[in-house]
Amino acid sequence: MKKWAGRRLSGLTPAQFIIVCYLAATVVSTLLLMLPISLKPGVRLSPMDALFTAASGISVTGLTVVSTADTFSTFGTFVLMAILQFGGIGIMTLGTFLYIILGRSITLTHRRLIMLDQNRYNLAGLVQLMQAVLMLALMFEAVGTVILGIYFRLAGYTEGWVHSFYVGLFHSISSYTNAGFDLFGDSMKSFSDDYFVQAITMLLLFLGAIGFPVLIEFREYLIRRKGFRFSLYTKVTVSMFLLLIVAGTAGIWIIESSVSFVGMAWHEKLFYSLFNSVSTRSGGLATMDVTEFATPTQFLLSILMFIGASPSSVGGGIRTTTFAVILLTLFTYALGRNEVRVFKRSIGQDDVTKSFVVFSAGTMLVIGSIMILDALERQHFSLNKIIFEICSAFGTSGLSTGITSELSNPGKLLIALLMFIGRIGILVLLYMFRSKKPKEKYRYPKEDLIIG
């Protein structure tokens, strides 16, 4: 049996192997969350709800059908934190760390898996990359735990230092991994007037969503300084990420000024707009009920969730660089140019093609899922709520208009599948259909088509 399983796994492509690992992790997480020790006394968790929670945790989405604080025991929340850590940092990062601890060598096959999981183009420096990713994650989460733990205790949000650091640890991990789970019972609505907690949370969300390669480059810049040059990837990623934050903040402020922000002070409008703009992309934490937003705002948030976070980060969606290349290509084509240029560099045609493939596949997936979910729920929910829920799942955001727990089991399965796809990424999903067979050595004659 063991040899048969080994042969079956060895026959998988790297993309197929990664997907199998994430599926296996989801199944194991489901079983762990269903253990009696993981639940509070008298609480029962159905297999479907456990599966949904596990899928949400592995994909670091945060959509929930049960209250985390009311359902899980202390042991259960630690299990959930481990799931969030696993899902956020990635299976290959933790796998590499385990190999290093056990003293085992990192094989070429393992390096190829890392390369695919982290969207890298070459095999050089992958082990050092995984070590840096893990160390940065643990450092940010540890600092966040200390700051939040002390603040929660001194501000009177929690009682006792142990409980304060426990809540601080959970919130720090949930924020950095952009998971969106909370122990407060109302996401972050209790902190709608606490700008310090919001600022720390937004910083952790930003560090998790900006992407590991960007963080590593900034670390190298701080070490080397002189002669250091940021890569085109980092320049495009940071620029687009900040641009989307500003655009989202401005859009929410403008639309809601005459709706839910009426009578608020300017600083309240600013933080409500800024926090939702940052969190929407993949964080899933909220300082106000999104159902209070006007329909145009909900649609804007859906677009931001669809775009998602940066590549090689904890977030989902089509990713920021994909959206940036799409915009740059449209601009280039409108001007009649042949090369897509930005920051005095040209973008390769392969990257342009990948961007349009990811965008097109993501769009078709989301539109198809909206139609299917609406049909499954027999039009019980308004279309804007369906759109919002689908985009939240695909972008692994976790924000919800409150319909998650009311969905039918088939509807929950669809949302869980979208969260899973959002986590592994569109490219890995498409690579799953590739075989190990060599490429064809012949080509057909080309013929032009009428386009547009």
From TrEMBL:
Does the keyword Hydrolase belong to this entry? no
GO terms in the biological process aspect are: metal ion transport
Which terms does the record give in the GO molecular function aspect? monoatomic cation transmembrane transporter activity
- Carries keyword Repeat? no
Q: Which UniProt keywords apply?
A: Cell membrane, Ion transport, Membrane, Transmembrane, Transmembrane helix, Transport
The record's section on InterPro entries has: Cat_transpt
What is its membrane topology? Multi-pass membrane protein
Q: Name one GO cellular component term.
A: plasma membrane
Note one Pfam family from the annotation: TrkH
Segments passing through the bilayer: 15-38, 50-69, 75-102, 123-152, 195-216, 236-255, 317-336, 356-374, 413-433
Major subcellular location class: membrane
What subcellular compartments does it reside in? Cell membrane
Recorded superkingdom: Bacteria
Q: PANTHER family, per this entry? A: KTR SYSTEM POTASSIUM UPTAKE PROTEIN D (PTHR32024:SF4), TRK SYSTEM POTASSIUM UPTAKE PROTEIN TRKG-RELATED (PTHR32024)
The identity of this protein, by name, is TrkH family potassium uptake protein
**Source organism:** Paenibacillus oceani
The lineage, from the top, is: Bacteria, Bacillati, Bacillota, Bacilli, Bacillales
